[in-house]
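User: What would this chain look like folded?
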Amino acid sequence: MFSRAISAARPAANRALRSNFGPSTLRAFSVTPRASSGGHGPPPPGLFGPGAKPGEVPGIADQSTGIERLQYLGDAEGIEVFDTAPLDSSRIGTKKDPILVPSPASERLVGCTGSPADSHDVLWFPLMKGRQHRCLECGSVYQMDYYGEEHHDQHHH
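Assistant: Here's the prediction, encoded as structure tokens.
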């Protein structure tokens, strides 16, 4: 069930990561056409809970949706959905040997606390695929270890 939920959520997450929402790109649900597979098989599984039975108070398994449900299903199966482990702070990253930051997206925010950990206040900066970034406080160099789908952020017209 978890792997079906992951495959259902991946396209929406990829679109959300690369979209820029502006007034012209948003529209009301009332005018959004319903997506259909055209009768070519069952629809993909949704990330919606079954809801509570009448007269019962719903729990997280009944009412969670989206990313919260994805994390709940992963926890239920013993799978860590989000990598929340801290980065290597035992050393200062250099240009030749940077601190590698795993990421499925081509851009992500990174927070540096120095080496050893908590040597300075957290400094947040954007890290982009194919580029290195140096922390302005401690000088540690970071580089993205990209594991996402190649060309997923290129738009085809």
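The mean pLDDT is 77. If you want, I can go into more detail on any region.
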